[in-house]
Write a structure and sequence with these properties.
With 267 residues, the protein is an all-alpha fold. The chain has 11 helices and no strands.
Length: 267
């Protein structure tokens, strides 16, 4: 579809709804075609994390924030899995297109920077939400995880998927090879997720490390989901909501500008 047909496909306030929907659908089908890796894989990994931690330290750990350790652990593992999958969806999609040299197939159609952004983020959100639903149902069924404030939990999962999808696009823009993308994931995303209260309450940390955690947006995503499921948290969910919204808006703005200017997209 060439630029000459631009006005012919745009409707409803000059938005290319068809093109945006097509891109979003492509991103969803991309991970659904390998659902055993993208859906079942995270469920198995989350179950293994719960099992190993419970066997290793669960019986002697006692309650955490008034909750059995296994129940306390579940929202952290759920959120960690969601943000890792949302990040992987956009980063792998764009990096694969860049390395394969077919990124032009996405950039050439009459899609604005905002429409490209929405299409890619929709795929990340869909993957994150499906993973969240599967793990939540498993946790509620097998360990009795409650759902105290479902709207809060849903909101933080949604915002976390948006933020991580945008960060995945940032990583893919900078990465010209898959090993560079793996390095970003292994040395930045995974440590930040692990060191943000996934497996513990940050009240157990020294004051200096607690302060560092409060600068980590992953902490607020995990803490917000924990509040939505268990009704307990290390910080105010309203503060967390504000922090995640600000981070999401900032990263989305950066990615939108890069898409608009074509920054490193063909590198």
């Amino acid at each position: 579809m060439g630029r000459s047909t631009d006005m012919g496909v745009r409707r409803f306030g000059a938005v290319n709804w068809l093109g945006t929907w097509t891109l979003a659908r492509r991103e969803v089908l991309r991970f659904m075609n390998v659902w055993s890796q993208t859906i079942m894989g995270p469920l198995v990994n989350a179950g293994l994390f719960l099992l190993i931690f419970t066997i290793a330290i669960g019986p002697g750990r006692g309650d955490v924030m008034g909750m059995p350790f296994m129940v306390f652990l579940a929202p952290g593992i759920l959120t960690m899995t969601v943000i890792q999958n949302a990040f992987a969806n956009t980063s792998s999609s764009i990096a694969s297109a860049k390395v394969g040299g077919n990124i032009v197939d996405t950039l050439m159609p009459p899609l604005s920077a905002a429409e490209l952004l929405v299409g890619y983020i929709a795929g990340a959100v869909a993957r994150g939400m499906i993973v969240a639903v599967v793990i939540t149902l498993g946790a509620m069924l097998f360990i009795g995880m409650p759902m105290t404030y479902p709207i809060w939990a849903l909101g933080f999962v949604l915002l976390g998927s948006i933020l991580m999808g945008a960060l995945g696009m940032v990583a893919a823009v900078f990465a010209n090879k898959f090993d560079q993308l793996s390095a970003i994931s292994n040395f930045l995303v995974t440590p930040l997720a692990f060191l943000s209260g996934t497996f513990y309450s940050i009240e157990a940390l020294p004051p200096f490390l607690q302060t560092l955690c409060h600068w980590n947006p992953f902490f607020y995503i995990i803490d917000g989901v924990r509040f939505g499921t268990l009704g307990v948290s290390d910080s105010s969910p309203w503060v967390g909501l504000g922090v995640v919204l600000i981070w999401s808006a900032a990263v989305l703005g950066i990615v939108w500008y890069w898409l608009k200017t074509g920054y490193r997209m063909k590198a």
